[in-house]
Every structure is written in C-alpha cells, then in structure tokens.
Write a structure and sequence with these properties.
Pfam families: HycI
Strand order of the largest sheet: 2-1-3-5-4
CATH class: Alpha Beta
CATH superfamily: HybD-like
CATH topology: Rossmann fold
Strand content: 15-25%
Organism: Streptomyces argyrophylli
Protein name: Hydrogenase maturation protease
Number of domains: 1
Order of helices and strands: EHEHEEHHEH
CATH architecture: 3-Layer(aba) Sandwich
Family: Belongs to the peptidase A31 family.
GO molecular function, one term: enzyme activator activity
Radius of gyration: 15 Å
Distance between the termini: 13 Å
Length: about 160
C-alpha cells in the first residue's frame, strides 16, 4: 500500500440516524491498520476537502434519505456513482456529498480512490436516537468500511 488512507464519518450524532457516520468511525478505532486517519465531518464541502488533502484513498461514511425510504439499506458507491446518486437524495447538510464531489473534481482535488458507504436512514430529528433500522444495520456498515480499509493495505499488512 502506498499513500495515506482517510475515513470520514459524515453526520451529526445529535440528529438521530444522521449519526451513523460518526458512530462507524468511533467503532473502527482499533479495527483498522495504524496510520489510517479516522475523522468526523459535518459534510461541509470545503472542510471535507481539507480532511482528505494528501490522501490517496478516502472512505466516506454517509447517511442518505431516499424516496421511497428503505431505512437500514446499505450502499457501496464509487465517487462517480455517489455523485450521481446522492444528487437525487436528501442530505441533512446544507450541501450534500454530490456537491462536495463536484467541487473536488472542479478543483482537481479528488483522491485517487474514493469509496462511499451509505446507509439509508429514517429519523434525523434533533435529539432523536438511532432508529432500530439504523442500529440493526450498523454492524454490517462497520464491517464493510473496515473491509474497504483493509483491502487498501493488502493482505500482508499488520494492524
């Protein structure tokens, strides 16, 4: 493996299911190779670009709202897929992941590899806990993100 790996959990843990990104990052501590940057973001595009500056691989964990809603459903997307699919979904952030990726592309700041792990969510009200659907799907989301990170480092890397 060459280069820096950054995992960004996007969301707000005070807004119910929007907290799945930060919850995933917290759960990854000790489960991914040393040197992996684990961070949380509110999703604001300029801050996101700063968080992945200098990274060769970025793994984004995001909550998405879709219509019709399928809370707990997981998606693994490439940067191109994420840009097109998240443009049609609602974000709890002022600007969504699609806008962030478009800005990164326009500025020539997309990393070599970007993977998005997204969970469809239900309740994002301020003060709400994670919904049952999000709690049930969270272990699989954490496993998928950890597997994405380990894949970058390769089978012979020690944690």
């Amino acid at each position: 493996m060459n280069g820096r790996v950054v995992v960004i959990g996007v969301g707000n843990p005070l807004r119910g299911d929007d907290g799945v990104g930060p919850a995933t990052v917290e759960a990854l501590r000790g489960r991914v190779p040393d040197g992996t940057a684990l961070t949380v973001s509110d999703g604001e595009p300029a801050r996101m670009l700063d968080l992945w500056r200098g990274a060769d691989t970025v793994v984004v964990v995001e909550a998405v709202r879709t219509r019709p809603a399928r809370p707990g459903e997981l998606h693994t997307l490439t940067a191109a897929d994420a840009a097109s699919r998240t443009a049609a979904t609602a974000s709890t952030h002022a600007l969504g992941l699609g806008e962030c990726l478009a800005l990164a592309e326009a500025l020539g700041r997309l990393p070599q590899r970007l993977v998005v792990h997204a969970m469809e969510v239900a309740d994002v009200e301020l003060g709400a806990p994670l919904s049952e659907a999000a709690r049930s799907a969270l272990p699989e989301l954490i496993d998928r993100v950890a597997a994405s990170v380990r894949q970058v480092y390769g089978p012979n890397h020690e944690e």
